[in-house]
Amino acid sequence: MDFRKQFKIIIAGAGVAGLTLANMLEKFDVDYVILESHAEIAPPVGASIGLFPNGLRILDQIGCYESIMSLAQENAKLNYVRDENGKVLTTMNDMSDHLLKRHGYPMLFFDRQWLLRVLYDQLKYKDRVLTKKKVSNIMPTTGGVEVTTVDGDKIQGSIIIGVDGIHSTVRGEMFRLGHELQPGYFSSDQEDKVPAYYKCSFGIAQDVPGWKGGEQHILTGKGTSQLVVSGPENRVYWFLFAKLPMTKYGKDIPRYNKEDEVEFVKEHINLPITENITFGHVYAHRLSSTLTPLHETVYQKWFFNRIMILGDAAHKPNPIGGQGGNGAIESCAEFMNALIAKKNTQTTSLAVLTDREITDIFSQTQAARHDRAEEIVNAAHKSQALNAFEYPLLSNLVWKLAAPLAGDESVFCRLAEILLNSTTIKHLPLPYRPRALPFKDELPEKPVGRRTSKYVKVAFIVCMGQLIWLVGKAFRLPITDLGSWADSGPMGRRWTGSQELDWIIDMFVSVFACPLNGRNQAPKLQLVYFVSQLISPLLIYTIEGYRIGNQGTLISLPSLFTAGMQVQGIGRMAPIQAAFSALSSHELPTGRFVRPEVAMALIPALTLGYVIPTILALAPGNNIQSWQNWIALWQLAPPIFSTLTWAFSKALRWRITRDQSSSRDEAEETQKLESFDRYKTTDVPILQFVYKYAFALQATAHISILAYAYSHDISLFRTFFNLPNIFKPEWNLVDLSSEINTFFKFDQLFATTAILASNLYSVWDLRRLGYIRTREAFNAAVGVFGGQALVGSGATWAALWYWREQVLSNLGQ
């Protein structure tokens, strides 16, 4: 029989993927029939489902979101990670509300049966859903397929989409036909390569004594982990994962019965969930439960002829990541994108599609989803391995050190890596939902591929490493010769009473004294210029340290870099900081946020801690001892700036909160509310004013010093460059002043080079992430280069950060 007179899609399976796909097809008036093996559409099989923003965004497009939100919901208000004894390792507040703010949709957890009911009720043609129709056999026909069910019915269609789960009959038939009709198309051992690393007890309990609603618990352990979530109607959803003694593959993966479940429960009945509740307490109040092995795989080929598999039949992650159902929804959306794109190229209808055109649709679907499906499967596998202490050293470092330090933004960022790269149905409107983070398909420009991004990052870090190596060649400060006040001989000051410490201070003061007291104007001019351009490094290292997205990284410790500038030189610290920034700096706009009181503290702290001491240290005075004191104090200017920033911000914080109630409950509630400040832009105008201040100071210094050099016939080349070959073992410089001047020139040169490279990498980073268009990136890069000559390195950096702040803050608006 020729089925080309009409186009009908046979959907095998009325689960989340099958019913979602049916709703999508109805939006485009594409005929379909669903074959469901169960006797009812939403059977009470005891499973729960987590819906994340990537899945909800697509469900919103097909009109199901409001119905889903109308279900009884209980969002998790407290999210805990606990150790194997039930003791808290980390706590996070209002995760679902944060996801709503960040992505426009919350995280929902409820009975899978309820979602199936919503999807089914949304269907216009419910008569197209056939129950008790388990697929038994598939045969290709001219222009279509013929499906035989277990009860002997034969259903004809143009194509069949198998969304019938990990034990997919459609996949088995597809492999059979592939081996028969096109040997070699599928590898003969594909099913045998599917691994199972864990088994899982999951189910639904209700009215568990002592259970607190609105909580989610992740339990870590040696070889086990748990995910236990509060649900509506006083429900508790649990997943208890236990690592198999050895990885099983394919046909060797066991299937469990009720007797196996009883033994599993006995083995783990005393496993803590909290310090007061065990797995046994939850299991005793179960409504339903199941023990199952966990397949983890992404099949290499999802289609043959006019057959395609989607959802768990094609890509099955560990459920710890909550992306199984969401990933299936995404796959259905990509299938629709390919189908409707092909439909729009037809002059007649889909009924005339050839086998080659059907293959194109299937191929485009898999191409759009395969890598992302692998990403989701791999991410879930790594998460499970981390929770179950497969690598104890790594798990201990993460859960007992890194996670408590990093804060909740790092958790949201890891989630965003999965959520933001999701798809939509391209030919359906997307309802407006305000969100702080745009999905990747909403960005101004398509992000650069991961491989290219990785290569550029590695190249940049290698270049910074090369600079650090060159610094080691160039820095040849004669430490033992230092300690004199220019040509006046040793200072011999008693600064502290400690001879060793006094010598160190004499050494630092001596480094400044030589160029400032010398007769040659060029070294003095170079030093004045150099220290004036250190405002931006001090300021921006500090700002980056206070950004919420940099918590838990070395970037969050700006004093390491600012103090290192004085001890090791900015020429060495700039490439080190740039490399760490490229490795670990925040990428999401929400990580940009700096508390307003910190932003307000920056200008007074910078002025008192660095600008004024610098002016007094550089300005010669009649009182030599007083001048020496200012030069000595200047050595502490960076840590003084950091300390003043901290102190002023704390004082401002106290002033803001002093009128509020000091009760513990109200203080905790205020802290929770303030965690949502990262989605505001109250800090942006303050920070931009700070950048203007830094720009004005450094640009003025740059222009004034260049003008002075020009008017006094001082060679800029000799002042800032004219350096010896760093690869020569001996430089034979004439005196100590020349050696110090050479050190400062190299320090400035390497610092400027590292900062210039870091500025350009920051522009690249914005383009890589899709936050700016290519032309904007090009213009910004030109501005960075041009700014070096026009306003100087420091002012250019301040201007770049002014613009960058605006770019990041505007993305979520």
A few lines on this structure:
With 813 residues, this protein is α/β, with parallel strands linked by helices. Helices cover 51% and strands 14% of the residues. Strand 13 (215-219) and strand 14 form a beta hairpin.
Number of helices: 27
Proportion of strand residues: 5-15%
Q: Which fold name corresponds to the CATH topology of the largest domain?
A: FAD/NAD(P)-binding domain
Architecture of the largest domain, CATH level 2? 3-Layer(bba) Sandwich
Strand segment count: 20
Shape: elongated
Helix content: 40-55%
Low-pLDDT parts are none
Question: How do the strands line up in the largest sheet?
Answer: 5-4-13-14-15-12-16
* Cα Rg: 33 Å
- Global structural class: alpha/beta
